[in-house]
Amino acid sequence: MKLAVVGCTGLVGSVILKVLNEISLPISELILVASSKSVGKSIQFNKKDYTIESIESALSKNPSIAIFSAGGDLSREWAETFAKKGTTVIDNSSAWRMGKNIPLIVPEINGSSLSSKDKIIANPNCSTIQMVLALKEIHHRFNIKRLVISTYQSVTGTGVAAVEQLMNERKGIDTDMVYPHKIDQNCFPHGGDFLEDGYTTEEVKLENETKKIFNDNTIKVTATVVRIPVIGGHSEAVNVETIKPFEMADIQRALKETKGVIVKDNNTEFDYPMPINVYEKNEVFVGRIRRDKTVENGINLWVVADNLRKGAATNAVQIAEYLIDNKLVS
Fold it and tell me: How confident is the model at residue 24 (pLDDT cuts 50, 70, 90)?
């Protein structure tokens, strides 16, 4: 079982290695890939030194699974080439997510839809993953009609350069501007690129990916994405309207019975999810659970997760784990 990690030196790539070290997979050979400037350098994993290889070298070794985390351009260029040689590609970029025959997978929700014929598997956007996992059982039991989402997203979702911008601003150091505005002591309602209708690409991802993962195009979704000066955690205020009526005890029960979700909802103890508390955790945390009194079947939720973990690296590794456990790769 050869496994390649393409983009091993990036923010997500480095977390993938951490998760692989935590989740024991039967890997016979680990192939670490990065850009040409890193090829030949040494990187340590599980107390062993590995030499970073080129993507061409990784292809020649015919890995069983390749986790891509090096951006959409590289994924569009190389994913199909690996797939044609029999490698199952798990792609972290947005390149393949809305492809007609490309599965978009959160294992706890729709892992069972995978087959050995699926050679390119898309990892959803970070903000989508944490939200749909929190909503899984609510949708299953009460049928979601409409979602209104406001996100408060960490700079880590943009990458290393964004973290550097934030830290340099805090130190008063002149810095390259990844964002169009200062991020320290600020927040701005802008994630991704603006589209003609005024929405951004990050907002559209929440709409399209949610429908695809739940296999339900009837769900109405509207979103506002906000970037905030936080390292290590996306937060979301999610307003849910369901078709079927419910009691609030039913919602609490549904959330507590969702694998991968932890409920933190004790207002008297000020116990609710915050990015500072979910850092480097693999679960999705939900709190501030309350009825929306303005509609017949409405709920408000506060959903928080480490976007580099379940929002990216952990979900990708869990897909690999599912493929191996169910003998969908060899």
Answer: confident
